[in-house]
Amino acid sequence: MSEGLAVRDVVVRYDTGKGAVTAVDGVSIDVALGEVLALLGPSGCGKSSLLRAVAGLEPVVAGRVTWDGSDLDGVPVHRRGFGLMFQDGQLFPHHTVAGNVEYGLRVARTPRDARRERVAELLGVVGLEGYGGRQVATLSGGERQRVALARALAPRPRLLLLDEPLSALDRGLRERLATDLRVALRETGTTAVFVTHDHDEAFEVADRVAVMAHGRVLQVATPPELWRAPASRAVAEFLGYQASWPASALERGDMSEPDARIRERGSDRSVAVGPTGLRVLPDDGAAPTAHTWPATVVESLFRPRGVEVTVDVDGPVGVERLVAVAGTTAPQPGTRVRVALDRAGCAVVGREAPAPQESVPTTP
Ligand SMILES: Nc1ncnc2c1ncn2[C@@H]1O[C@H](COP(=O)(O)OP(=O)(O)OP(=O)(O)O)[C@@H](O)[C@H]1O
């Protein structure tokens, strides 16, 4: 019997009146006790539907959801022992911060002293010590989400389900809160499933990430595994790799490190070029070496970590507009340069999985 959450071949479908939409198309995932799993994917790929099915908010038309081996079919939302947190926190506007955080404890008839103690502890975990008496209307967006998190954690849910909890916040705040969310989940030993469309956020918060597209899971892996070895071009593109070059096109020339890795894994592979996977070299008239290509500078942008150069590269698959990194000098638009593959910024991609079936309206 497996401990924690097991989702097996789950299908979620909506009847739109014009036919059925298959939002989740046979998904299987496991979440171990104490683990944080992110569901990552583009808008409409079925992340929220899967989360809602686990919560019991959407019916599962096929497959099973179990907790510690017990089937949750027919178990209503409030009897699953799961906590929920959404994008807009959904705080009770006329209660104080403490009133909101202790809500689940009141429902569970926790004695007053224990409630007070737990509220203080949780406000500490989310960085809001001393905020208990504040009215929620006086809080900033980030503070509200912290209160929502404290409220969701207070009854010690056996699983916390978070649906885009940070996406209503601006970028800087989101980055800070992502770190705080990770710390809060670790500190409280909470098992969680976290929905996001932002890969940085998923990498920051989760132990493992499930990448979804068209209602299916394409890959589940830890953030470093996912980044180093995306299973398909679709995963690589979604993670922010900017180009995908056939490994065979790179096998000519000398046996440098990337070639060795590529050959090891078979020539049907491709190489995903990451945001730092290309370096700009001056076009000094020297004979081209393996893994360098001619390019024309389109524009250069200064960034704190180096100059980012947009280039039209005459690469292994024809001319492509890509970004390469340069040292401290920004080459002028129109300058002819060469770009070199930087192995540290590239990944070897697995064999392309068959294209998933479209989850467009189908008749049941
Ligand atoms: N109540 C509903 N009725 C009909 N179709 C729905 C319903 N909810 C979701 N869908 C459809 O199911 C598919 C998956 O939606 P879902 O909200 O699960 O995706 P998502 O990945 O969470 O997207 P987002 O990031 O935009 O929230 C989409 O095609 C969506 O239009």
Written account of the structure:
This protein has 364 residues and is an alpha+beta fold. It has helices spanning 47-55, 97-101, 103-107, 112-125, 141-153, 171-187, 199-205, 223-228, 233-239, 247-250, 257-264; strands spanning 5-15, 20-31, 36-40, 62-67, 70-71, 82-85, 159-163, 192-196, 208-213, 216-221, 243-246, 270-273, 278-282, 292-303, 306-315, 318-326, 336-341, 346-349. The longest helix has 17 residues, at 171-187. The two termini are 33 Å apart. Residues 14, 16, 21, 23, 41, 43-49, 197 line the site of adenosine-5'-triphosphate. Adenosine-5'-triphosphate binds next to β2 and α1.
Task: Please outline what is shown here.
Helix 4 packs across helix 5.
Q: Order of helices and strands, N to C? A: EEEHEEEHHHHEHEHEEHHEHHEEEEEEE
Contiguous runs where pLDDT drops below 50 for at least 5 residues? 253-259, 352-364
What's the total count of β strands? 18
Strand content: 25-35%
Oligomer: single chain
Radius of gyration: 24 Å
Determine the structural class based on helices, strands and strand pairing: alpha+beta
Largest sheet: 6 strands, mixed
Backbone shape: globular
**How large is the count of helical segments?**
11
Organism: Luteimicrobium album
Region (Disordered): 255-285
Protein name: Fe(3+) ions import ATP-binding protein FbpC
Biased composition (Basic and acidic residues): 255-268
